[in-house]
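Example record

Each entry pairs one chain with its bound ligand, phosphoenolpyruvate.
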Amino acid sequence: MTAIRPLVAGNWKMNGLGASLAEIASLLDRLAQNGLPPTDIMVCPPATLLTKAKLMLEGGPVTLGAQDCHPLASGAHTGDLSAEMLADAGAKAIIVGHSERRTDHGETDAMVNAKTQAAHRAGLSAIICVGETEQERRNGATLEVVQGQLAGSVPRDARAANTVIAYEPVWAIGSGLTPTQDDVAEVHAVIRAELTRLIGEEGTGVRILYGGSVKPGNARELLQIANVNGALVGGASLKAEDFYTILCAY
Ligand code: PEP
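Structure tokens for the complex follow.
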């Protein structure tokens, strides 16, 4: 099997005004000065910054992602953005099913599946987030929860080239807590097996990112775990220095 090229993606969430684009400029400077790590690199700023970020990133080593989309291509859905609009603004990928959207907006696996299909329809990759809550982990239900989310969220025609899974334990997001290396390895192995069951051979090439309090100080230990093909980074992606240090774990 050919090696999977990792991906490190920064999820800015609802953070960032125009001035924050200086962090993207600083990231590009660091990469230009020190050389490129052997990983794909993506930043996912809020939709308001996509067009400006696109101009900065064009032709460079960092790709642009968005954070959510509506399942439909257009229509009477005030305030929503379609995958086609995000592609038009410069996004190459869309994060779907982040736990904050599942919690804040009641997104179900079926909705995440529809959004994933929308991203694919627009020619974009989908980064599908899954992960258990603290209570579910305490109940010993982690693997079952993650398998269920995958079964509901991953379209059966998903391909390694257009689909990424991010395993993000809800209790690890923004908390400074991380699972043990053994726990991450166990969940990622189950995700790999479930992907293969759902989409066959393609599942062996899908990138499985770890997300949840990835920081400069723990990136190396998390990113070298089996079946961890990169990271989805929240808070630590807002500062170029921290995000760049995480990239240097490769
Ligand atoms: C995220 O929300 O995708 C995330 C991983 O956040 P953080 O790195 O801040 O825990």
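The beta strands are 7-11, 40-44, 62-66, 93-96, 125-130, 163-167, 207-211, 230-233.
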